[in-house]
Structures are given as C-alpha cells and as structure tokens.
Amino acid sequence: MATYEFQCSACGPFDVVLPMGTASPYRDCPQCGKPGRRVFTPPHLARLSPALAGAFAREERSRHEPEVVRRAG
Ligand SMILES: [Zn+2]
C-alpha cells in the first residue's frame, strides 16, 4: 500500500491509501465529494507532512475535537 496526496480546491489537501500503482490523477474529496487533484510528493517528504500525519491521527483526534464538515448547499 502507498499513501497518495490529493488537493481539494475547497477543503485543502487530503490523502488516500491505495495499493501501489492504482492511484488516479483525481480522487473525490472525502469532505465535499468534489474531485481533488493528485499532488506528487516525494515519499520521504510525504511521511513528514503534518497533513499526512493528521490524516492518520484523524480518527483518534475526532474523539477530542469535532471534525469540521463542509456541506455544499
Ligand atoms: Zn473538498
């Protein structure tokens, strides 16, 4: 498995864990459902990215603070 980073124009960066070689240039944003654009990040940098670390900790963190969910319309 590999982590791929995407950028939503509305919500900002998010990442998706997929089997190697299966990532597409676009991926639906988990928050608003709009297609996010693939961001090509060197693996060693992605591993240090706060956004990436935040994604891994999201489930844990949501127990302490409510997650902001944007709703269109
Ligand atoms: Zn979004």
TrEMBL record:
SMART domains noted in UniProt: CxxC_CXXC_SSSS (SM00834)
InterPro entries linked: Regulatory_FmdB_Zinc_ribbon
Organism: Planotetraspora thailandica
Superkingdom of origin: Bacteria
Name of the protein this chain belongs to: Putative regulatory protein FmdB zinc ribbon domain-containing protein
Domain Putative regulatory protein FmdB zinc ribbon: from-to ranges: 1-41
Highest classification ranks of the organism: Bacteria, Bacillati, Actinomycetota, Actinomycetes, Streptosporangiales
Pfam family, one: Zn_ribbon_8
